[in-house]
Design a protein that fits this description.
3-stranded antiparallel sheet; 402 residues; mainly alpha; 4% strand
Length: 402
């Protein structure tokens, strides 16, 4: 009987030549969320655009353009080899830092509503934090692979990645953008925990950081007002609690099955940011409790599928791919959770959009790119599975030869 012992080189060649496929469930779920978002942007933005005298379908057209750009970004991500991304991770981290720094440069950064969060790109503005989220996920995935043993056994191994995330959070707080800073820290902490960090180490660092977080949260009057209005929005329903009370009225009007698509009253200049941060409230008013459940199910299925793909990558010892899948899933899931919580009055008001549903060019484009990265992971996992199946069949064929 002949023995077949593949080397790592011919194993890699075998995987590279094997066919693969993109996960169909991810595609279906992402398309479902994007389609729902398209409908809701159309419904929620008509009154806003008409009031600004820019054409009733202005925001819908913009959203379609950004979806097209996002689809292009997703296609590029699906064609990008994960090995190349892993090698370029340090450069991508520098790019992320540069993007956050550019918002403070005169003539490049733009100040809107008192915050410096945008970079001027001709007639458009790009919110740099949306790209930073994806770039940081890629870098952290690379870091967790390179320093996995140190991360799992030493407190210092946990401090380093969280310290990098804290530096980025500090740049975001300077804009200021407390919501994105918190989200970024939560995603990185989740990735570090999934990378094998001990809960004891994470608990020590969380306890040490708690006073600083409290000082940041209560250090500005507007943040304090958000917290107090969140606890009792009806105490000042026409000022500090206005957004939340109007959102809750919209949710209450929707009852079980909504008032009908296009029938929202709150979007008619009562609910601020109806097509962006508070689009879920409009959806709840028009589609009711059933619509909220639909959104929750779609996001839960998308995030769950991302984790399944990540676990399959771990089983194949493709750790970088696994952490990319975990990071993207955490990013989308946590942002959706916060946005939904804000609209339902469960969490304090934050300037975070609902991924793939809210109007917002930067968020739409980079969420599509992140899903493209997740699809690339699914492709490489599928390709490795097919290569292994071909190897098993080849061994069986060799084994039966005389």
């Amino acid at each position: 009987m002949l023995l077949f012992t593949p080397t790592s080189e011919n194993q890699a060649q075998r995987i590279d030549s094997a066919p693969g496929r993109f996960d169909p469930w991810l595609i279906v779920l992402a398309c479902a969320l994007a389609s729902l978002g398209l409908v809701m942007v159309a419904s929620s933005s008509i009154a806003v655009a008409d009031g600004e005298h820019i054409g009733a379908f202005y925001y819908l057209k913009r959203h379609l353009v950004f979806l097209a750009i996002g689809l292009t970004a997703a296609l590029v991500a699906t064609r990008t080899d994960l090995g190349w991304l892993e090698r370029q991770a340090p450069l991508l981290l520098l790019l992320a830092a540069l993007l956050l720094a550019l918002v403070f440069v005169p003539m490049i950064g733009a100040r809107i509503n008192g915050a410096r969060r945008w970079i001027r790109l001709g007639p458009f503005g790009f919110q740099s934090v949306e790209a930073v989220k994806v770039l940081l996920v890629v870098y952290m995935s690379s870091y967790l692979v390179r320093h996995r043993e140190n991360l799992q056994t030493h407190l210092l191994g946990v401090i380093k990645p969280l310290g990098i995330a804290a530096l980025f959070a500090g740049l975001l707080l300077a804009q200021p953008d407390f919501g994105s800073a918190t989200l970024l820290m939560a995603v990185v902490m989740g990735m570090v925990w999934l990378g094998g960090a001990r809960l004891r180490d994470l608990a020590i660092l969380a306890a040490a950081a708690l006073p600083l977080v409290g000082w940041i949260a209560f250090g500005q009057d507007y943040r304090v007002k958000r917290l107090t209005s969140f606890l009792d929005p009806w105490a000042d329903p026409f000022k500090d609690g206005f957004q939340l009370t109007q959102a809750l009225i919209a949710v209450g009007r929707g009852e079980w099955f909504g008032v009908g698509l296009g029938g929202s009253v709150q979007k008619l200049f009562y609910l601020p940011e109806a097509h962006t941060d508070f689009i879920l409230a409009v959806l709840a008013e028009e589609l009711g409790f059933a619509g909220i459940v639909l959104v929750l199910v779609l996001f839960a299925a998308l995030v769950g599928r991302g984790f399944v793909i990540g676990m399959r990558a771990l089983e194949q010892n493709r750790h970088f791919a696994a952490f990319c899948a975990f990071g993207v899933s955490l990013m989308i899931g946590l942002q959706a959770l916060v946005s939904i919580g804000v609209n339902l009055g469960v969490l304090p008001t934050k300037g975070l959009t609902l991924p793939l549903i809210s109007s917002g060019g930067s968020s739409v484009i980079m969420t599509c790119a992140a899903i493209g990265l997740l699809l690339r992971v699914s492709y490489e996992v599928s390709r490795a599975d097919n290569a292994m199946m071909a190897l098993v069949e080849e061994r069986q064929a060799i084994g039966v030869r005389p």
